[in-house]
């Protein structure tokens, strides 16, 4: 599995549990020797890092996870790798926290978010499954963090599939509380190959109800919207989206895929969002999948992913991305 050559499907979907320990040890030693290893930013011990996941301040500690394919700087079978911190400066690597070990997430534990419910920390994430014809099946799943640091997954998805009118590109739930209910905003693609945002809510985190599509003024703005986020700052509603399929325009939209925000007024009952123009969070070429959360002082903190594999940065294939 040379890191500079194309990987086969079988290589990409190997489970780390099935890989020879000596191979993984050698791989880690090779990565450790790189002069580009980070001293401040989070960077995986081996393999590919992508989207930040499960960001939360919970019981005096920060939890930060990210998408992780352990065996190389390519997209393959995704795990969540978790870190904890007391100050968001020094991070302790805790290891994989969500593994692709059920039939619903057999082909990847995809992105999601963390939230607190009845005093416990929960993760909501997208389970990725491929059938015998390699067709994608996406569902939304929940797991609870136990006292010993392990997680217990709900026995079946809380949202089993995308609603009618949308493709299987249905992922990245961001959970937030509004009033007495919990909501999940989920990135989606409609059958016309247009990016969209869908909204669900629940009172018990088990039974989720589909409310519909959030009506924005961005009717034809990319073929898929990933990694959504919603929050309010200074009495302004903010929605973050990562639209895929936006063509570069002068000095705009020069990331491989875009990530940005739209300010406006969200009517959660009518599912309407009156907003300003989409604004990129970063005008470079290598920033993606940001997510936010509140720190211990109630400040809104954003963490993103840089080192996107398809960029042309020297050494990215060799040394891996960072967050």
UniProtKB/TrEMBL annotation:
<dbReference type="GO" id="GO:0004564">
    <property type="term" value="F:beta-fructofuranosidase activity"/>
</dbReference>
<dbReference type="InterPro" id="IPR001362">
    <property type="entry name" value="Glyco_hydro_32"/>
</dbReference>
<dbReference type="InterPro" id="IPR013148">
    <property type="entry name" value="Glyco_hydro_32_N"/>
</dbReference>
<dbReference type="GO" id="GO:0005985">
    <property type="term" value="P:sucrose metabolic process"/>
</dbReference>
<keyword id="KW-0378">Hydrolase</keyword>
<keyword id="KW-0326">Glycosidase</keyword>
<protein>
    <recommendedName>
        <fullName>Sucrose-6-phosphate hydrolase</fullName>
        <ecNumber>3.2.1.26</ecNumber>
    </recommendedName>
</protein>
<comment type="function">
    <text>Enables the bacterium to metabolize sucrose as a sole carbon source.</text>
</comment>
<comment type="similarity">
    <text>Belongs to the glycosyl hydrolase 32 family.</text>
</comment>
<feature type="domain" description="Glycosyl hydrolase family 32 N-terminal">
    <location>
        <begin position="41"/>
        <end position="312"/>
    </location>
</feature>
<dbReference type="Pfam" id="PF00251">
    <property type="entry name" value="Glyco_hydro_32N"/>
</dbReference>
<keyword id="KW-0119">Carbohydrate metabolism</keyword>
<dbReference type="InterPro" id="IPR051214">
    <property type="entry name" value="GH32_Enzymes"/>
</dbReference>
<dbReference type="GO" id="GO:0005737">
    <property type="term" value="C:cytoplasm"/>
</dbReference>
<dbReference type="InterPro" id="IPR018053">
    <property type="entry name" value="Glyco_hydro_32_AS"/>
</dbReference>
<dbReference type="InterPro" id="IPR006232">
    <property type="entry name" value="Suc6P_hydrolase"/>
</dbReference>
<dbReference type="InterPro" id="IPR023296">
    <property type="entry name" value="Glyco_hydro_beta-prop_sf"/>
</dbReference>
<keyword id="KW-0963">Cytoplasm</keyword>
<comment type="pathway">
    <text>Glycan biosynthesis; sucrose metabolism.</text>
</comment>
């Amino acid at each position: 599995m040379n890191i500079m050559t194309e990987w086969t499907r079988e290589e990409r979907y190997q489970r780390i549990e099935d890989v020879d320990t000596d191979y993984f040890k050698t791989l880690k030693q090779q990565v450790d020797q790189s002069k580009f290893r980070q001293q401040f930013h989070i960077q995986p011990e081996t393999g590919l890092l992508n989207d930040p996941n499960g960001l939360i301040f919970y019981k005096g500690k920060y939890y930060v996870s990210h998408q992780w394919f352990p065996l190389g700087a390519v997209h393959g079978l995704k795990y969540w790798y978790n870190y904890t911190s007391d100050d968001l400066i020094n991070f302790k690597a805790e290891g994989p926290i969500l593994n692709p070990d059920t039939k619903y997430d057999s082909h990847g534990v995809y992105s999601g978010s963390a939230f607190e419910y009845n005093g416990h920390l929960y993760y909501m994430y997208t389970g990725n499954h491929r059938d015998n014809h390699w067709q994608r099946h996406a569902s939304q799943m929940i797991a609870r963090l136990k006292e010993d640091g392990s997680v217990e997954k709900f026995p079946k998805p809380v949202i089993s599939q995308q609603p009618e009118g949308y493709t299987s590109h249905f992922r990245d739930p961001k959970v937030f509380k509004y009033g007495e209910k919990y909501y999940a905003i989920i990135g989606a693609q409609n059958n016309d190959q247009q990016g969209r945002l869908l909204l669900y809510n629940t009172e018990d985190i088990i039974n989720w109800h589909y409310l519909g599509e959030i009506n924005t003024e961005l009717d034809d703005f990319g073929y898929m919207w990933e990694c959504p986020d919603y929050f309010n700052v200074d009495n302004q509603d903010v929605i973050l989206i990562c639209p895929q399929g936006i063509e570069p325009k002068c000095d705009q939209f020069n990331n491989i895929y875009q990530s940005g925000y739209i300010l406006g007024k969200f009517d959660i009952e009518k599912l309407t969002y009156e907003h300003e123009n989409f604004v990129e969070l970063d005008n470079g070429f290598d920033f993606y999948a940001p997510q936010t959360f509140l720190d211990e002082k109630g400040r809104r903190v954003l963490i993103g992913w840089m080192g996107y594999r398809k960029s042309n940065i020297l050494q990215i294939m060799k040394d891996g991305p960072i967050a």
